[in-house]
C-alpha cells in the first residue's frame, strides 16, 4: 500500500502475537467485546468502512474486524489513532485503562490484587489484619 507516495506496510495479525483474549477470563472477554462493539458503532456512525478505517489507523482490515469482534486486544496506539480518526474526543482513548488490565493474564491480575491486599493488611492491628486477609482470600 502507498500513502503520499511512500510504501506503507499495515500492521497485521502476524505483527502482533500475544494479543488474544484469554478464553477463561470472563471479565476480560466482556471488556474487549464491549470496547470492540463501541469502536464498530462509532466507525459506522461516521460512515467509514472497515477497510478505509484500517488504512486510516494503520492496520489491516482483518485486524479491524478482529478488534471490533472482541477477538483481539487493541494496542494503545490503535485506540489513540481510532479516537483521533473517529473524532471521539478522548472517549476511545479512555478504554486504555481497562485494556491494560485485560492484557495481563487473569491469574496475574488476581495475584497482584492479593499482594496489594496483603500489603494493605499490614497496616491493620493483628486481629483485623487476619480478618481482612481471610475476606481477601474468600475464606469467610
TrEMBL record:
<feature type="compositionally biased region" description="Basic and acidic residues">
    <location>
        <begin position="1"/>
        <end position="14"/>
    </location>
</feature>
<feature type="region of interest" description="Disordered">
    <location>
        <begin position="1"/>
        <end position="20"/>
    </location>
</feature>
<feature type="domain" description="HTH cro/C1-type">
    <location>
        <begin position="38"/>
        <end position="93"/>
    </location>
</feature>
<dbReference type="InterPro" id="IPR010982">
    <property type="entry name" value="Lambda_DNA-bd_dom_sf"/>
</dbReference>
<dbReference type="InterPro" id="IPR001387">
    <property type="entry name" value="Cro/C1-type_HTH"/>
</dbReference>
<protein>
    <recommendedName>
        <fullName>HTH cro/C1-type domain-containing protein</fullName>
    </recommendedName>
</protein>
<dbReference type="Pfam" id="PF13560">
    <property type="entry name" value="HTH_31"/>
</dbReference>
Amino acid at each position: 500500500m502507498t500513502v503520499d507516495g511512500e510504501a506503507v506496510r499495515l500492521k497485521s495479525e502476524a505483527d502482533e502475537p500475544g494479543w488474544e483474549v484469554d478464553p477463561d477470563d470472563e471479565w476480560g472477554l466482556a471488556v474487549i467485546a464491549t470496547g470492540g462493539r463501541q469502536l464498530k458503532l462509532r466507525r459506522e456512525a461516521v460512515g467509514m468502512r472497515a477497510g478505509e478505517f484500517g488504512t486510516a489507523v494503520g492496520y489491516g482490515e482483518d485486524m479491524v474486524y478482529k478488534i471490533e469482534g472482541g477477538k483481539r486486544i487493541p494496542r494503545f496506539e490503535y485506540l489513540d489513532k481510532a479516537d483521533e480518526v473517529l473524532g471521539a474526543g478522548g472517549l476511545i482513548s479512555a478504554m486504555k485503562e481497562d485494556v491494560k488490565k485485560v492484557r495481563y493474564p487473569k491469574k496475574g491480575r488476581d495475584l497482584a490484587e492479593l499482594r496489594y491486599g496483603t500489603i494493605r493488611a499490614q497496616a491493620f492491628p493483628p486481629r483485623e489484619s487476619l480478618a481482612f486477609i481471610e475476606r481477601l482470600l474468600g475464606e469467610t
